[in-house]
Amino acid sequence: MRTRRLAAALALALAVLLGSPGVALAAEEAPNPILPQPPELIWGAISFAVLFFLLWKFAFPPMNKALTDRSEKIRSSLDEAATVREEAQTILADYQRQLADAKGEAGRIIEEARETADSLKRDLTARAEAEAEEQRERNAQQIAAERDRVMSELQSQVAGMAIELAEKVVEGSLDREANLRLIENYINSVGGNGSTPSDSEARSGS
Amino acid sequence: MDEQRVDGYATAMFEVARVEGSLDEVEDELFRFARTLEGNEDLRSVLTDDAVPAERRRAVVADLLGDRASPVTANLVSLVVGAGRARDLPAIIDRLVQRAAAEHDKVVAEVRSAVALDEDQRERLAEALGRATGKSVEVKVVVDPSVLGGLVARVGDTVIDGTVRTRLDQLRETIR
Fold first, then answer.
1. Exposed (0-12), middle (13-18) or buried (19+): which is A143, by Cβ within 10 Å?
2. A206 vs B167: CB contact, 8 Å cut-off?
3. Percent of chain B with pLDDT over 70
4. Contact B151/A at CB under 8 A
5. pTM tops 0.80, yes or no
6. Per-residue model confidence as pLDDT tens digits over A172-186
7. Within 13 A of B62's CA, how many CA atoms are on the CB side?
8. CB atoms within 10 A of CB A194
9. 3-state DSSP call for residue B61?
């Protein structure tokens, strides 16, 4: 559209120049070829004015608008680039902050893990020592109990052997006379007639 | 066997012995037989085994008591064994002995000794136990070698123990 208007203005200006009477007057006299004739100046001025008017009316506004649009576009692009750069810087800053945070978090996690490991190690060590101590005590108690049991069993066996031996001795020495003496002692003791009571007598009621 | 049946058998045997005029002898023999039965597991298992025919059980009793006890004693034991009541024979005989003693206003003292007692020792022992218990006592002696020496007397619920066996048992417990 703008190109069509510009072409029309140039065509009109050309037509005005071609129709100028100055061209015919030049052939009749021999004026100074350097100085233009007054009509030629007038027509030239008019043509210039018309051409300028036409250019000012039809060609300059689109050109100005194009330049303005171009400037706006460039400014917009520059603004957009600045915005993008700022956003990029913001993102970079965020990224760097997140990276720093991540590094800090990683350090904290590692430190926590180290502390947890140390604590766990101390707990396990303490527990193992406690269990070992408890096991030692249990072993000592079992040994003591076993020793007591063996001693008791041994004592019981010795007592049994002693009693069996005593029984054999008693059976061998208890002849009829000794038995009769025991019976007499029993009768005298039970009867309570003043005789010395035998140690082997006992009374019980059920 | 319930008390009534034990009492019935004891009464019947007591009356038979008394009618036969040999109560003391029969009572004594029955008492010794009861103690023998208690102490001899083989004899007890044979006489109480229902699978053994009654005739066979009676024959065992006859072999055992034929020449060692009076015919009345042997017949009474044979009667109870043949009736299949051998398991309760000690209880029946104990009831009979208590009844015979009560007949004379006496209580029975079951005395165990490693050796047999003569009549004088029995009388003095009965007298001594009578003084100790405050009752008139009739002594029944069981010869039991396991007591080793001395005597142990049971009068009702009272036990007066003076045996070497008990002394040794007490010594064993003390040492343990």
1. exposed
2. no
3. 99
4. yes
5. no
6. 888 888 888 889 889
7. 8
8. 7
9. helix
